[in-house]
Write a structure and sequence with these properties.
Layout: E1 3-5, E2 10-11, H1 22-25, E3 32-47, E4 49-55, E5 66-76, E6 81-90, H2 92-95, E7 101-109, E8 114-118, E9 126-127, E10 137-138, E11 148-157, E12 164-168, E13 171-176, E14 187-199, E15 221-229, E16 235-237, E17 244-247, E18 254-260, E19 264-270
């Protein structure tokens, strides 16, 4: 099975007990069903970065649906919530197509207001390298048991400026200034996850490759090389005993850690969706 590491092959265009659900925090619409499957780490101290490599698929969704694979880094307390994410999604309502797009997103919410957006739809992200066009689509995506497209991603804080930098395949493409956030000098949650949304009383779309994890590399969508920057500002690899791996509805979606000599630790996630995916 050949693997293509994504080199800008673009065409024109309650997860943790006792805390609020980070996935629901970044969801929109009270009449929307949101499902997820992934791994969540929380810290009593601080995180300063998150990274990983994700396989890229093209799940089939309808106009009002969305299917996402992404990494989040977030900080929340009783009055504030802030998050940054990077990944890929299929979102026809935004792009007016059914292609898979690279995306970034930020959110800052407190008792008085909320701000944030995807890609460059509002002021905030400062792009420093325009060789990557944010929001553009992949011209190739993975095939189950066949050709595989992967992209490495990272969200890392600059220890001096406290700005949060986005990396695509180890290239710094830009940053979110620390001034955008009221409580993002560090983070207390990191997430590698698949997510779907759909209107209530409708079928939920596929997540990832559309296949649940079964331990066979190349079947389900996967994250690998999972790592984070710890409280000592050192990069640390994720191990199987870290975090919580779960899904919102195991009938429709699932997530599991697997480990082998070839790929190391992988987080496989996804599923077919369906008619009975109410959370």
């Amino acid at each position: 099975m050949g693997i293509l590491v994504f080199l800008f092959c673009l065409v024109n265009s309650p997860l943790v007990h006792g805390t609020r659900d980070i996935v629901q925090e970044v969801s929109t619409g009270s009449e929307t069903i949101t499902n997820y499957a992934g791994a969540i780490l929380t810290s009593g101290t601080a995180f300063y970065g998150v990274s990983g490599t994700v396989s890229v698929y093209n799940p089939k969704v309808d106009q009002e649906q969305m299917s996402v694979a992404s990494m989040f880094i977030a900080n929340q307390d009783s009055n504030n919530f802030a998050a940054i994410s990077v990944g890929w999604h299929v979102l026809p309502s935004l792009y007016q197509d059914n292609k898979t797009h690279l995306y970034i997103h930020w959110l800052s919410r407190n008792l008085n207001n909320e701000k944030g957006c995807a890609n460059l739809q509002c002021p905030g992200f400062i792009q420093t390298d325009r060789s990557v066009i944010i929001g553009q689509s992949f011209n190739q995506t993975s095939v189950i048991d066949g050709f595989s497209v992967e992209i490495s991603m990272a969200i890392l804080q600059n220890s001096s400026t406290k700005d949060w930098w986005i990396y695509i395949n180890e290239k710094k493409i830009g940053y979110y200034p620390s001034s955008l956030f009221s409580n993002m000098t560090s983070a207390n949650q990191i997430v590698w996850i698949g997510k779907t949304t759909n209107p209530t009383n409708t079928t939920s779309p596929p997540m990832g490759s559309g296949v649940k994890p079964n331990g066979v590399f190349g079947h389900a969508c996967h994250f690998k090389k999972l790592a984070f920057v710890n409280n000592s500002r050192m990069q640390q690899s994720v191990t199987k005993d870290m975090g919580e791996v779960k899904s919102s509805n195991s009938q429709c979606y699932d997530a599991r850690y697997y480990e082998d000599d070839t790929n190391g630790l992988t987080l496989q996630f996804g599923g077919p969706g369906g008619n009975n995916c109410v959370v």
